[in-house]
Amino acid sequence: MAARIDLFANETGVKLAKRFANTGLVVEHSALPRATRELVSLRASQINGCGWCIDMHTKEALAAGESPVRLNLVAAWRESTVFTEAEQAALALAEEGTRLADAATGVSDETWAQVREHYDDDQTVALVALVALINAANRLAVIVHQKGGSYEAGMFAAMRD
């Protein structure tokens, strides 16, 4: 199935993508480690079934030096030994923050405590914002059927102001 509309060929879509990318710069320039950012983005995208975002974050992570083993195990991170306790806390937050409708409490107190054990205030704010932003991006791409496979690492860098 082809994309319903090309957001990157539409004037409003391009403006939105540029503003969205600039908002993401706050998270990118935070002290939250890049590996954590890519793992969290990948996991939320897997849950939401966003091929475009899975493609993007896999390729960006690889370009940043992430190992294929870790990327292949993100979907089963609880059954893996390759993630730090801090990364596990971030992945749990990504899952619970993505699946808000599945639990009446949203993010559990246990997961929040694990996040706070490993991340300072600025990193925590960046992590929460990242979960919100990747979920918004997933929804944009899934609604219009933006397909994965054509993304090239670094291609959004030119969109930023």
UniProtKB/TrEMBL annotation:
SUPFAM superfamilies found in the cross-reference section: AhpD-like
Short name of one Pfam family: CMD
Domain Carboxymuconolactone decarboxylase-like as annotated: residue spans: 24-96
InterPro entries: AhpD-like, AhpD_core, CMD-like
Protein name: Carboxymuconolactone decarboxylase family protein
Organism name: Actinophytocola glycyrrhizae
